[in-house]
Design a protein that fits this description.
The chain contains six helices and four strands; from the N terminus they run H-H-H-E-E-E-H-H-E-H. It is mainly alpha-helical. It has one domain. Helix 3 packs across helix 4.
Length: 178
């Protein structure tokens, strides 16, 4: 498959999964929608022959998402409406982190290929994504700037960990890293 077309398919599937997870509480199937997102990205990774290679990133994303978001909730920086959760992190958000981990290389590899791009890109991207969630009414920044700094810190750490794992568990398409 043409690499640009494949990249476009990856982006579309990730965006559909993002919508299924983030807007889960606003769908007629609130507890099923996030799993549909995971099914989509897992199916795409399997069809593209990269499911096994995405597992370390998906597992680390799962653990970071549960830990990082629960910490933000416990620090009273982030609030989520009632929904089944793990330590304060709603399952739709946990599912989103898994989807992100699976689609990390095909969609976000450019960031992973450089340390500063990982830190800055994921920090800014994380804040923008959570701010978007707030605009959609699925989460709330309890203290706007401090919450944004907390999210940026969470995602800077995630970016460093993802880069480390990207280098430690290279994909067959990964190229030389600087």
């Amino acid at each position: 498959m043409n690499s640009k077309f494949s990249f476009l398919i990856d982006i579309i599937i990730f965006k559909v999964a993002w919508v299924l997870c983030v807007l889960a509480t606003k769908t007629p199937i609130p507890e099923l929608a996030p799993y549909c997102g995971i099914f989509l990205v897992t199916g795409r990774a399997w069809m593209a022959g990269r499911l096994k290679l995405s597992l370390p990133l998906a597992l680390s994303a799962l653990l970071m998402g549960i830990t990082g978001d629960a910490l933000l909730v416990q620090l009273n920086l982030l609030e989520f409406p009632p929904y089944p959760n793990l330590g304060g992190t709603p399952l739709w958000m946990v599912s989103l982190w898994v989807c992100f981990g699976i689609m990390l290389r095909p969609v976000f590899e450019w960031f992973l290929d450089h340390c500063m791009r990982s830190i800055i890109g994921f920090s800014l991207g994380g804040v923008i994504a959570y701010w978007s969630g707030q605009q959609l009414g699925v989460l709330e920044f309890t203290n706007s700037w401090i919450t944004a700094l907390g999210i940026a810190t969470e995602w800077a750490i995630a970016g460093m960990i993802f880069r480390f794992l990207h280098l430690k568990f290279p994909s067959s398409t990964a190229h030389e890293h600087t």
